[in-house]
Design a protein that fits this description.
about 200 residues; alpha+beta; OB fold (Dihydrolipoamide Acetyltransferase, E2P); de novo design (two linked rop proteins); 2 domains; 5-stranded mixed β-barrel; about 40% helix; globular
Amino acid sequence: MTKRSLRIQDAQGYVLHASPWRETSLIAQCFTRDHGCVAVVAKGAKRPYSALRPVLVSFQPLMLSWSGASDIHTLIRAEAGPVRLLNGRGMMSGWYLNELILRLLAREDPHPGVYDAYEAALTALSLTGSGRSHAAVLRRFEWLLLEYAGYGVDQPLPDFDDQDTEPALRQALRERLDQLLESPLRTRQVLMDLQRY
């Protein structure tokens, strides 16, 4: 099998970020369970009647098929799973999760544990209503992302719902993430600003 004939069928995944490319296409950064972060070009996805246009949205489970061996693959098909609604702070929290994945994980390096933690976090964010419960979801995901990606901390799993230890846990995780990232996360600052309201 040559590299040109590489073809992936029905990979579970999510769109983390999409940006316009040329007149009618999108480049989507996707996170898949079995293939890690992959970049795909969705040809014609910006056209008004494209079948891909309503499907390639963030936070929705997808079945993705693509081909090609370059850094950016060609998306062949994307099918949506059940709709998950994130509103307000939940959506900002979801963007924060997406940015963490894009910044911390290497391209095409599978992390099924991170994928499962991401899916669980999105489900929890779609069900939570208060800022405190969002904080617990974010701390749990940050902890598991660091652990599964090989940057974990040498401590037992904390109680993420304990409101008394949440500020210290948030600070410890922020310091650990800042050590790994070269520049601050944009969505983190927005989340911090939202906590004041």
